[in-house]
Fold this sequence. Notes:
Elements: E1 11-12, E2 19-20, H1 23-33, E3 40-43, E4 49-51, H2 61-72
Antiparallel strand pairs: 1-2, 1-3, 3-4
Amino acid sequence: MSACNGKEPRYRCPYCMYISRYPSDTYKHVKRLHENQDVYAIDVLGTTNYYSKSTVTQDNKILQSKLDEWSQNIPSLT
């Protein structure tokens, strides 16, 4: 097990071998190093893929509705 917050890296870049403990770190990596590519992270544990809401296009309404539903269920940090 890793010493950093007890989490093992599990969110992989879909374009290279980069892997992170948090999907947001992988989003930042993809935006910086893989410009003009869809921004998402692959969960190596196989539970799901994590998509950055900002990159979802209009022609993918099913994914957009799932992201909206998911984001409404996130508890507020305040």
